[in-house]
Amino acid sequence: MLRKHVEVRKRMDADNIVAWEAPEVIRKYMTGGMCGYDREGSPIWYDVIGPLDPKGLLFSASKQDLLKNKFRDCELLRQECEKQSQKLGKKVEMVLTICDCEGLGLKHLWKPMVELNKELLTMFEENYPESLKCMFIVKAPRILPVAYNLVKHILSEDTRKKVMVLGSNWKEVLQKYIDPSQIPVEYGGTLTDPDGNPKCPSKINYGGDVPKQYYVRDQLAQPYEHTVVVNRGSSHQVEYEILAPGCVLRWQFKSEGADVGFGVYLKTKVGERQRAGDMTEVLPTQRYNAHMVPEDGSLTCSTPGIYVLRFDNTYSYIHAKKVSYSVEVLLPDASSAQQIQQLGDKLGEVALDHSA
């Protein structure tokens, strides 16, 4: 582990990384930032999820630069802890994180972004163990257990125990740990930027959609698990059983030579193939230019049942279509889903994974 840590620091040029300037698109559109200190003097880091544009960032910046930028953030926080230790005359070694999940949605479950987040978390666990004091999740949406289930296996048991979901009284809870003067007005405190801005954007970046002028690519190379030929005048159906509400269907596909239709349906009869007109339409069939740009998408399944992903070539009287695709069913983390359900709009807080 030590050797790996040394290798990572060397690869990231850790001794000089604080002086490294990230590409402009990362500086402008990667969300989050350090703002204030808790009542014990620990630095506070804000992660702002909703306005983050996963595709825009990955189409505009290299994965290596995104990893390097996060490593730089960690180094800045480590140095800030050292400064606080000297200032306060006591050891300050950990960071309190506030994760604003308002707006967390299906776009954040885009597979390349999930894979990047896994690498970021692995890097954090391997190189900055014990540096997380606590993570407070505020404004958690119903999809949070699905997102958490994708990455929780990377987190150590100790880290999982430090993740807390706050209820509707989250502003009051934050003030138990942080003086209001150290919390932006946006998050229930009294701190503003010098110009009076309640969000403190000089310290916390709120991102936004990345303008396409920054794009250096319009797609990412993705492996596909299946390849089929959809004959002219026909369709190809793939079935997935969803056992509980809240699961997410995630797909990606490309075609060769020409466009292909795609839609999602819910079967009304189990055990037999059904025509599209006999099933419940969930995602209307559209023709996609997947031969030019691969398509990807996702769907939160509110109803259990057999979902059918249908590749449609019934409109073509001449050409068969070769389609490559991958489909995943993303399951919510059972314990955290139950806890969030119980929390609802009640006051209080719950550990996201009390069972580790």
Layout of secondary structure:
Layout (H helix, E strand, L loop, with lengths): L1 H10 L12 H6 L3 E5 L5 E6 L5 H7 L2 H26 L6 E6 L10 H17 L4 E7 L5 H8 L5 H5 L1 E4 L3 H8 L48 E5 L4 E8 L4 E10 L3 E7 L13 E9 L6 E7 L3 E8 L8 E10 L3 H10 L5 E3 L5
Parallel strand pairs: 2-3, 3-4, 4-5
Antiparallel strand pairs: 1-2, 5-14, 6-13, 7-12, 8-11, 8-13, 9-10, 9-12
Order of helices and strands: HHEEHHEHEHHEHEEEEEEEEHE
Terminal Cα separation, in Å?
23 Å
* Helical fraction: 25-40%
Shape summary: elongated
Mean pLDDT: 92
Structure description:
With 356 residues, the chain is an alpha+beta fold. The chain is 27% helix and 27% strand. The protein has 9 helices and 14 strands. The strands form 3 sheets. A 6-stranded mixed beta sheet has the order 1-2-3-4-5-14. The protein has a 4-stranded antiparallel beta sheet with strand order 6-13-8-11. Strands 7-12-9-10 form a 4-stranded antiparallel beta sheet, with no helix packed on it. The mean pLDDT is 92.
Task: Provide key terms for this protein.
4-stranded antiparallel β-sheet, elongated, single chain, 356 residues, alpha+beta, 6-stranded mixed β-sheet, 14 strands
Quickly describe the structure.
The protein is α+β, with helices and mostly antiparallel strands and 356 residues long. It has helices at 2-11, 24-29, 54-60, 63-88, 111-127, 144-151, 157-161, 170-177, 334-343, and strands spanning 33-37, 43-48, 95-100, 132-138, 163-166, 226-230, 235-242, 247-256, 260-266, 280-288, 295-301, 305-312, 321-330, 349-351. The protein has nine helices and 14 strands.
